[in-house]
Design a protein that fits this description.
2 domains; two-stranded antiparallel sheet; elongated
Length: 305
Amino acid sequence: MRRLLVKRFESSFGSFQQSIKNFLQLTTRNAEFIKSHGEYILDRSLMEKIYDLDADEIEEYLLEYEQQIIKGERPKNHRRYKVDEFERKEDFLADIESDIALFNEILGKLAELDLVVSDPKTQCLIENIEKVISKKPSKGEPVRKVLIFSEYVDTIKYLQPALEAKFGGKLVTVSGDLTKAKLKEINEDFDASSSIQKNNLLILLTSDKMSEGFNLNRAGCVINYDIPWNPVKVIQRLGRINRISKKSLTSFKSLISSQLKWELISLNLGKLRPIRCFLSTRLWEKTQKSLMLMRNHKKLSYSRE
């Protein structure tokens, strides 16, 4: 859970706040169940899978589990423990109350510092988008469009109101199921191979749902609002616009702190080395050079030949 919260905090204050609220609600429910039934329930299935699930899947699983308990349903893999039989019962109950107090304290600090409403990272995102879409394209170049990726649906939902307020109908968001109507709208504005070409949209805000299998190569800029711990996902995101047929200027931006950025780049370079045997020498050198340029805080851009 610590890993989950650190990743959510790095992603956005809104996503982090929602996680804390979810944990507070679940822990409070547990405390109430213990008081009313004298039992503690542990889902062994979740404990076994927790390192294989991503953050959104863990939270979704916990919320579904909570609803099952409220309805009186008992998942087949859960274990029930009599709290009165615990050797350190008082310590156990005190720890639960301590967690509840800590969650409330964190939520209080977020509200006190106004971090969710006045988020400097969100403002930085808006400024970067404005720089890209306000730049007049050179003769023969297409209108610049922007893709914004986040690992978390909560972050997408958190950013959507701020971006809609600033960019209005120029924004399209994918945070859940992708309907045929929305996919058609996206293809017409972002897929260079679409038979219908429109310029109604300039910005696509999406989770990693669209990081694979979609041609979004009318966009000229990818912004990573957060960085996945799996470096392959970063390559998949960039691949949405860095297509074989792409000839226009492409740029990639990552909105993370300088220190964290270099730590992640160092880690990801190490993870990427085993992949080298599957890539052409030219593509590998390009990938490595791109990551090293990010270390020097330079705008990463290049033209396909």
